[in-house]
Amino acid sequence: MDKIKLRYGCNPHQKNAFMSVMKGDSPVQILNGAPGFINMLDALNAWQLVQEARTATGLPAAASFKHVSPAGAALYKAVDDAYLKSQYIPAGNWSKAAITYIRARGGDRMSSFGDAAAVSEKVDVTLAEYLKGEVSDLIIAPDYDDDALQILKTKQNGRYLVLKMDPGYSTDEVMEKRDLFGFILEQERNTFPITAEILKNRVTREKTIPEDAVQTLLLANIVLKYTQSNSVCAAYDGQVIGIGAGQQSRVHCTRLACGKADKWLLQRHPRLTDFAFKDGMKRAEKNNAADQILEWQDLSDYERKALEAWTTKNIEPFTHEEKKEWIRQFKGICLASDAFFPFRDNIDRASRTNVRYITQAGGSVRDEDVTGAADDYGMIMAHTGLRLFTH
Among 115, 148, 165, which residue terminates a domain? Predict the structure, then answer.
C-alpha cells in the first residue's frame, strides 16, 4: 500500500499525515500543488457528491466544499445575463462545466470563499479562467484541457492544488473504518442510491411534484448525504441556495438554511445587482457588502460607516415587507432534511422562505402535526424513510 505524504494533518503542527488507497493503484493524480489532510477530505467527498448527482439526474454537476461539508452544489442549467449579473460575473461564452460550478459556488458566495471545487465534467479554459479570479484552494475533476491546466498551474503562485480523478473508480470495500483515540470504529458504507423512489410516499393533501422539482429534491438529498449532521438543505431550480449544517437542533438547521436561501433570493433584487460599488472592488468584497446590506437594521454605526465607504451612493436598506414581497415571487423552492422534523416549527420557518416542496425521513411521534403544518401552507411533503446522517 503506497503512501502519499500530505503537507500536514488538520493543523500545521500535526506534521505526520499520509494518504493511501486501500487496493491497487491510486485513482487520483496530483497534477499540481501539494495536498493537505483537509484538502483530501473535501476533495474526495466533493467528488462523490458530483458523481452521484450526475448519475441520479443525467446532468453535469458541481460542488463547492468547505470543512468537509458542501457550501453549495448545482446541476447544469443555462443561465441568462441577469443571473450572472446577480453573481457579479460578466456575460460571456461560459462552458457547461463553468456554468455548473458558477451555480454551485453561487449558492453561498461567502461560505465558498477558499473552497474545494469539484466538477463532473472536463475542465476547459472558461472554467479555469473563472477559478483563477476566485479564492479557491483546489479543484478535482475527471480531466483537464491542456490550456486550462496551464492556467490553473499559475494560480496561487503555482501552489493551487489540481487533482485528476478516474471517473471509473469505485470501491468494493463494504466497511469503513475510523481510528479515534486508540479505538477503531467500523460501519457499513452508505451506498443507498438516491433516486426518485424516495419521493413516492407523499403524505400531504397535495401530491404533485413536477420533474424539475424532482431533480432539485434529488440534488438536495444527495447534498445532505455528504453534509455534517444535523443538516437541512434549501434548493431552487437545480441549485443549492442554503445549507444548515452541523447543528445540534434541527430547527436551527432550518433557520440557517432558510436564512441563507432568503439572502440568495434577495441578491437577485435590482437594488443589489445594480448597486453602485466603488471602482476596483473585488467580487468577494461585493459579496460581503451585499450580505451586510441585507443585515442593515442590525449593523452598528461603525459597520454602517465601513459599508458606506464601498459605495458611491447612499444605501437604501430593505424593509421587512420588501423582503417578503420579493421572496414570494419565487416558485418551486425545495427543502430537504437529513432526518425527521420533530416539530412543526421547521415547517413554519420554511413557509416564510416560500418553500413549496419538502422531503424528510418521517418517523417522528409528531408526524401528524408536521404534516398538518405542511397542509396549512399548501406544501407537498414526501417521507423518504431514509436518514442521511454524516459524521
Answer: 165
Q: 406544501: which residue's cell?
A: 379
The strand ranges marked E within the chain are 3-5, 18-20, 28-32, 61-66, 69-75, 115-119, 136-141, 161-165, 175-180, 183-188, 231-236, 239-245, 333-337, 355-360, 380-383
CB 96 within 8 A of CB 63: no
Lay out the sheet containing 69-75: strands in order across. 28-32, 161-165, 136-141, 115-119, 61-66, 69-75, 239-245, 231-236, 333-337, 355-360, 380-383
* Residue 380 and residue 209 in contact, taking contact as beta carbons nearer than 8 Å: yes
Residue 170 lies in a domain: no
Grid coordinates in use for 142? Answer: 475527471
**243: β partners:** 233
State whether 134 and 119 are in the same domain: yes
Mark whether 286 and 360 lie in a shared domain. Answer: no
pTM value is 0.95
Q: Which residues of 223-245 are buried (b: 16+ CB within 10 A; e: fewer)?
A: bbbbbbbbbbbbbbbbbbbbbbb
Residue located via cell numbers 454524516: 390
Lowest mean pLDDT among 151-155, 228-232, 286-290: 286-290
Positions annotated as catalytic residues are: 66-67, 230, 391
Same structural domain, 242 and 364 = yes
Q: What are phi and psi of 340, to 5 degrees?
A: -75, 155
Domain holding 248, by residue range, is 192-266+326-383
**Rounded distance, CA 359 to CA 207, Å?**
12
Q: Position 285: which residue type?
A: E
What are the pLDDT digits (tens) for 301-332?
999 999 999 888 889 899 999 999 999 999 99
> What whole-number distance in Å separates Cα of residue 358 and Cα of residue 177?
33
Cell of 254: 432550518
Which of 330, 365, 332, 360 has the alpha carbon at shortest distance from 347? Answer: 360
CA dihedral 85, 281, 239, 43 (to 10 degrees): 140
Q: Answer yes or no: do 230 and 274 share one domain.
A: no
CA 379 centroid distance within chain: 24
How many Cβ atoms sit within 10 Å of the Cβ of residue 170?
10
Cβ 242 vs Cβ 264: under 8 Å: yes
Residues 246, 227, single domain; the answer is yes
Q: What is the pLDDT of residue 3?
A: 81
